[in-house]
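INFO batch 0412 | record 1 of 1 | parsing
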Amino acid sequence: MLTECSQDSFNFSSLGGRNVTAAFDGGSITSNAGALLLRETDCRIGLSRQVSACFKDDRRQDRVEHAVETLVAQRIHGLALGYEDLNDHDELRHDPVLGLVSGNAEARRSDCPVLAGKSTLNRLEHAPKTDDDRYRKLSVDEGAMKRLFVIG
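INFO prediction complete | emitting tokens
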């Protein structure tokens, strides 16, 4: 007996007012479509949200293009997809699927990519442990990070 597969698309959680659908009609193609499942999992368990809550953001919010939660999600999802080097993100910052899974479907400004590049992500990864450096505007609460990832 032949298997009947009639489903020609899958719907995922929407982002803002946009529907997210995976279809098999040969339209826009990406090799990172599996990231949509990562996004669904992240939405359910709130990992990006919880990790981003461990950071203090003293940047001028009227000038911020990429929120801490977007930066954290971009890095987590990039790592899960096998992009461990920050250099990869200079190209990935234009990837619509990684933008979608990181919670940023559109750039706020027309002259800026949807996601952050390697320099911005580097500032996140090397955020000081204290906020006494006036030039470094992102800081991490190490205790909060440990409590998040260590059980017991």
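INFO post-check: The beta strands are 9-15, 18-23, 55-57, 138-140.
INFO record closed
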